[in-house]
């Protein structure tokens, strides 16, 4: 039997290369007028002019309506550039800190308890409870502090979220990520997003730290994305690339620093994914996530990183592996207390590691702006 030729479809052979130019098409606009009709010599001049004017008026009315709706829906969502600028200006008028780095403290990293955590060790700290910040959501997770902390870490000006917003709390993704855009308007150039996560990679151990190399946006597969809806170009483009989401240089620095601090035996690198929560995953779900290349699973971060990259912030992601994911039916079940306990046990290491990283990232950024 003759081998099947990939170019042979339904018996016809076409080996010609793809045409470089596209065939001309006649475009019909939304109101039914077309270039052809405009050129139609048989149309009586005066009626034709009136027809064109009416069409043009209708078109500009329609455009205005679309613009109005776009503005309204953004306002309704409390997410307009102007609204977030109001929030950023409120904060800037109450603190002298001009943060360069934004940090989101995950479940194991100071969002639940004060003593010893990174967020509690910020120098010259000025704290803003979320409920006092205009247009800000409030934390509903029990035990989350829910405050923005401005100050310095190793001399670098920072703002830290002590408690984040999760989708499972009932907030839409854009609202979970609102603080990231506020950070951008505060002048933040680098986002450090941390989280607690279950380890899927069989080589990971509880208490390991995973530098996030990439993510899989599971919720995005179903169309749930923080950038869904009208796009405001002042934040970023309609179709942002996401193939360099986690900064390569930051990841290398994190590996170097892990060696310097002699914690490289617990520092890993891998792919993070986020599901909506609040339930922990089924065995079948975890097996599927493993199969598609996820090393750790959590309930946050992915949408924050998408929002940060959309507005051109550099991103570093770090997961604390708080539990081994249960991938057979006779193992113990995951629970939130375990997540918090591991966070508490690792907080000293995390504080040291992250504060060194803040210092190095800040040095890198200031070196980049030198002429
Ligand atoms: O805020 P993160 O993503 O660190 O919190 C994880 C996910 C859930 O909120 C919680 C589960 O224990 O930890
Ligand atoms: O196993 C987990 N699954 C989802 N989120 C988590 N956060 C900590 N551990 C986990």
Automatic annotation (TrEMBL):
Transport found in the keyword field: no
BP term (GO), one: nucleoside metabolic process
GO molecular function: purine-nucleoside phosphorylase activity
Domain of life: Eukaryota
Catalytically driven reaction(s): 2'-deoxyguanosine + phosphate = 2-deoxy-alpha-D-ribose 1-phosphate + guanine; 2'-deoxyinosine + phosphate = 2-deoxy-alpha-D-ribose 1-phosphate + hypoxanthine; inosine + phosphate = alpha-D-ribose 1-phosphate + hypoxanthine; guanosine + phosphate = alpha-D-ribose 1-phosphate + guanine
Domain annotation Nucleoside phosphorylase: ranges: 101-358
Calcium among keywords: no
Keywords: Glycosyltransferase, Transferase
One GO cellular component term: cytoplasm
Enzyme Commission number(s): 2.4.2.1
Pathway(s) of this molecule: Purine metabolism; purine nucleoside salvage
InterPro entries membership: Nucleoside_phosphorylase_d, Nucleoside_phosphorylase_sf, Pur_Nuc_Pase_Ino/Guo-sp, Purine_phosphorylase
Class of the enzyme per the UniProt entry, highest EC level: transferase
Family (UniProt): Belongs to the PNP/MTAP phosphorylase family.
Database matches in NCBIfam families: PNPH, PNPH-PUNA-XAPA, PRK08202.1
Protein name as catalogued: Purine nucleoside phosphorylase
Species of the source: Eumeta variegata
Lineage: Eukaryota, Metazoa, Ecdysozoa, Arthropoda, Hexapoda
Gene designation per UniProt: PNP
């Amino acid at each position: 039997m003759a081998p099947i030729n990939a170019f042979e479809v339904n018996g016809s052979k076409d080996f010609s290369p793809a045409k470089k130019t596209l065939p001309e098409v006649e475009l019909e606009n939304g109101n039914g007028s077309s270039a052809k009709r405009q050129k139609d010599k048989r149309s009586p001049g005066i009626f034709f002019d009136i027809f064109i004017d009416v069409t043009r008026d209708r078109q500009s009315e329609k455009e205005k309506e679309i613009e109005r709706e776009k503005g309204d829906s953004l306002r309704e969502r409390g997410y307009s550039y102007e609204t977030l600028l109001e929030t950023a200006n409120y904060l800037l008028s109450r603190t002298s800190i001009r943060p360069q780095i934004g940090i989101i403290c995950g479940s194991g990293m100071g969002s639940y308890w004060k003593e010893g955590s990174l967020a509690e060790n910020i120098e010259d700290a000025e704290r803003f409870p979320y409920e006092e910040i205009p247009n800000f959501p409030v934390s509903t997770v029990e035990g989350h502090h829910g405050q923005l902390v401005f100050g310095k870490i190793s001399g670098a000006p920072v703002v830290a979220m002590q408690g984040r917003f999760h989708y499972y709390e009932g907030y839409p993704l854009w609202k979970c990520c609102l603080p990231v855009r506020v950070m951008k308007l505060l002048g933040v150039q680098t986002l450090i997003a941390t989280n607690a996560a279950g380890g899927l990679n069989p080589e990971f151990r509880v208490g390991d730290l995973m530098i996030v190399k990439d993510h899989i946006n599971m919720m995005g597969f179903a169309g749930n994305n923080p950038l869904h809806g009208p796009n405001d170009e002042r934040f970023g483009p309609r179709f942002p690339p996401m193939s360099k989401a986690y900064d390569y240089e930051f990841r290398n620095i994190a590996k170097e620093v892990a060696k310097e601090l002699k914690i490289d035996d617990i520092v890993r690198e891998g792919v993070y994914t986020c599901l909506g929560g609040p339930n922990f995953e089924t065995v079948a779900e975890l097996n599927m996530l493993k199969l598609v290349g996820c090393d750790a699973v959590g309930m946050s971060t992915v949408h924050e990183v998408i929002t940060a990259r959309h507005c051109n912030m550099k991103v570093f992601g770090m997961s604390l592996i708080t539990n081994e994911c249960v991938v057979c039916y006779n193992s113990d079940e995951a629970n939130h207390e375990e997540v918090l306990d591991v966070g508490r046990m690792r907080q000293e290491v995390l504080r040291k590691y992250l504060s060194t990283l803040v210092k190095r990232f800040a040095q890198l950024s200031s070196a980049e702006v030198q002429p």
